[in-house]
Design goal:
Elements: E1 16-27, E2 30-42, H1 58-66, E3 74-83, E4 86-87, H2 93-99, H3 111-114, H4 121-132, H5 135-140, E5 146-147, H6 153-169, E6 180-187, H7 191-199, H8 204-218, H9 238-245, E7 246-249, H10 251-265, E8 270-274, H11 281-312
Parallel strand pairs: 5-6, 6-7, 6-8
Antiparallel strand pairs: 1-2, 1-3, 3-4
Helix pairs in contact: 8-9, 10-11
C-alpha cells in the first residue's frame, strides 16, 4: 500500500497521525514491502475508511498502529504513528499494553483465529474492561455491571458500592435489578456425578480454571484469587480456585450455596449461569435442565418468602 500525504486542517488537534509508515515482512523468499509510505490523519469523532483491493496492506497498517505485527517477520522500518501526540513506536511493550483495549481497540476479521478456543468468549470480551476500567468508571459511562464468574465473593461484593458511586457521578439512580452476576455452576442428579464431573481431575470445569488461572497469573492478576491481597502468589492453587469458584452438587446443595452466595454479596438482579465446554453432553444438558426446572424455581420461591417476611417484620 502506498499513501499520499494527509491534508492538514485548522479544526483542532489530530487524534491519530500516521506519517510515512513503512512495514516490511522478512521471509525466506525475500522482503515483502506490505506498506510503503502511507500517511493519514484522524480527528476526534471522525471516521476514516481505508479502501483497497485484497492484500494491499489495509489490515497490516492497522496492526502496525496497534503494534501487533507478527514477529519476527513483521517490522516497521520507517515512519511515525502519533496517538494524541505521542509516538507509539517509542513506547515499551508494557506502555503499549496500557493503551490497547482502553484507548485504541481493534475488531479482528476472523474470530476463529483471533479468539482463544480454551477461554470463553465472554471472558475475552470482558478482559480489556477488567484490566483497564473499574466498576465506578464503567457505571459513570452509563454501563450496567456484570460481575465475572472468576471473582471471589468478597470482590463481587465490592462491586455494588463502586457501581453506586459511578451512578451518582452520572446523576442516575443505582438499581440492584441491573446488576448481573455470573457463577460457574454444575447441577447433577447424584453426588458422585457432581463430584467427578464438576470437581474431579478430568472435570471440564477444572480444565477451564486451569487455563484461566495460568493466563491471569502470567498477567500479574493473581490477586483476583486471593482472599487477602497480602498473601504470596504461591498460595493460589488450582484446587483452591476450583473449590472457591465452582458450585457443583445436587439440586438442594446448589440451591443452598447460591442462596448463601447471594446473602454474602448482596441483592442483585440476574444470575448468569456460566457453563463450560461439555466433556459429556448428557451431563451438561442435564445440568441446564435441573438449573431451569428445579434450582431457579426453588431460589425464587425462597426469595419471595424472605421478602414477605421482611415486609411483615416490625421496624426497629
Amino acid at each position: 500500500m502506498r499513501g499520499a500525504a494527509a491534508t492538514p486542517t485548522a479544526q483542532g488537534s489530530w487524534l491519530l497521525e500516521v506519517e510515512g509508515l513503512h512495514v516490511h515482512f522478512v521471509t525466506t523468499r525475500g522482503v515483502v514491502r506490505a506498506v510503503e509510505g502511507i500517511s493519514y490523519k484522524v480527528k476526534p469523532g471522525e471516521t476514516v475508511a481505508l479502501v483497497g483491493e485484497s492484500g494491499c496492506g489495509k489490515s497490516v497498517s492497522a496492526l502496525a498502529i496497534m503494534r501487533l505485527l507478527a514477529k519476527p517477520a513483521g517490522r516497521i522500518v520507517g515512519g511515525r504513528i502519533l496517538f494524541q501526540g505521542r509516538n507509539l513506536l517509542d513506547l515499551t511493550e508494557d506502555e503499549m499494553r496500557e493503551i490497547r483495549g482502553r484507548d485504541i481497540a481493534m475488531i479482528f476479521q476472523e474470530p476463529m483465529t483471533s479468539l482463544n478456543p480454551v477461554l470463553t468468549i465472554g471472558f475475552q470480551i470482558m478482559e480489556p474492561l477488567l484490566i483497564h476500567l473499574n466498576m465506578s468508571e464503567a457505571a459513570a459511562r452509563g454501563w450496567d455491571p456484570i460481575s465475572a464468574n472468576f471473582l471471589l465473593p468478597q470482590w463481587v461484593k465490592s462491586h455494588w458500592g463502586k457501581y453506586a458511586e459511578g451512578c451518582a457521578q452520572a446523576k442516575r439512580s443505582a438499581d440492584a435489578a441491573n446488576w448481573r452476576v455470573a457463577k460457574t455452576v454444575f447441577v447433577a442428579d447424584d453426588d458422585r456425578a457432581a463430584r467427578d464431573y464438576g470437581l474431579g481431575a478430568q472435570s471440564p470445569y477444572r480444565f477451564y480454571y486451569r487455563q484461566l488461572l495460568a493466563k491471569l497469573m502470567r498477567a500479574g492478576r493473581a490477586n483476583l484469587f486471593k482472599t487477602s491481597r497480602d498473601a504470596p502468589d504461591e498460595t493460589v492453587t488450582l484446587d483452591g480456585v476450583v473449590e472457591q469458584l465452582v458450585i457443583s452438587g445436587t439440586v438442594n446443595k446448589v440451591v443452598d450455596e447460591l442462596l448463601a452466595f447471594r446473602e454474602s454479596v448482596g441483592d442483585f438482579g440476574t444470575l448468569l449461569y456460566c457453563g463450560v465446554d461439555w466433556a459429556d453432553a448428557r451431563l451438561g444438558r442435564r445440568s441446564l435442565e435441573l438449573m431451569a426446572e428445579k434450582v431457579m424455581p426453588s431460589i425464587n420461591t425462597e426469595l419471595a418468602r424472605s421478602a414477605k417476611e421482611a415486609v411483615r417484620a416490625p421496624s426497629a
